[in-house]
Write a structure and sequence with these properties.
Elements (H helix, E strand, L loop, with lengths): L8 H12 L2 H4 L4 E8 L3 E2 L2 E2 L6 E9 L4 E9 L8 E13 L2 E11 L9 E10 L2 E11 L8 E12 L2 E11 L8 E10 L2 E8 L7 E11 L1
Antiparallel strand pairs: 1-4, 1-14, 2-3, 4-5, 5-6, 6-7, 7-8, 8-9, 9-10, 10-11, 11-12, 12-13, 13-14
């Protein structure tokens, strides 16, 4: 989800509150926030803001036991009258020997969209060294049954030099609900100190290579 657009007021209020929190007063172990900017918001290689820029923000809580919950908001406009996306998620992460894993859910909400396009996914991933394998399945959406759509991904993350990270990604979705057809998407990015530059493309007809520039500020609350 490439020019910056005027955001829904609720998004602006949430982002302003994140920046204004005095961390020395409200410091909570395991509580984090983030604010991000990008020239184009992509979700699994699919445009969420019709190629326009996006601003986003989120709050996450991670317990020492491995449980986590969070919420995230961004402008989005891929459906009629839609101006923003509001996500809620939670799960559990752990490590077994050299294998780390994560199981959870994400609820994607679009409160002002003309149509009921909210949906929920359950997901799981396993990581070994630099490699992460992920799988997500649609759990709930208007007019779609559990398991009708799914998404599988493979990611590789490396440090190449002086703190510069290289990420390689490929994913495939059976996504009749969102994209309207199955697709394969792939991309690569370089990142350092919150900045990221990447390229992304899909095998969908008439889709072009997209160049993504992003910056994320992480805040320890």
């Amino acid at each position: 989800m490439n020019k910056f657009k005027l955001l829904n007021m609720s998004s602006m209020v949430i982002l302003s509150s994140l920046i204004a929190i005095p961390t020395s007063v409200y410091a909570v172990d395991g509580l984090y926030a983030n604010v991000g900017f990008t020239n184009s918001y992509l979700w699994r290689g699919l445009e969420q803001t019709n190629g326009d820029s996006a601003i986003s923000g989120g709050i996450d809580y991670e317990s020492q036991s491995g449980f986590y919950v969070g919420t995230w908001v961004s402008n989005a406009d891929w459906d009629k009258e839609m101006t923003y996306e509001l996500d809620f998620y939670g799960g559990y992460t752990g490590v077994i020997k050299n294998l780390s894993y994560d199981v959870g859910f994400v609820h994607y909400a679009y409160p002002d969209s003309l149509n009921d396009v909210d949906f929920t996914e359950v997901n799981a991933s396993v990581a070994y060294g630099a490699i992460t394998f992920g799988y997500a399945v649609l759990a709930n959406a208007e007019g779609v049954d559990f398991g009708d759509d799914s998404y599988i991904s493979l990611d590789a993350d490396f440090t190449v030099a002086s703190g510069i990270g290289l990420s390689l990604h490929v994913g495939a979705g059976t996504d009749d609900f969102y994209a309207g057809e199955s697709f394969v998407e792939y991309g690569a990015s370089l990142s350092k100190n919150g900045f990221s530059f990447g390229v992304s493309n899909t095998d969908l007809d008439n889709d072009d290579v997209k160049f993504i520039i992003s910056y994320v500020i992480d805040i320890d609350l």
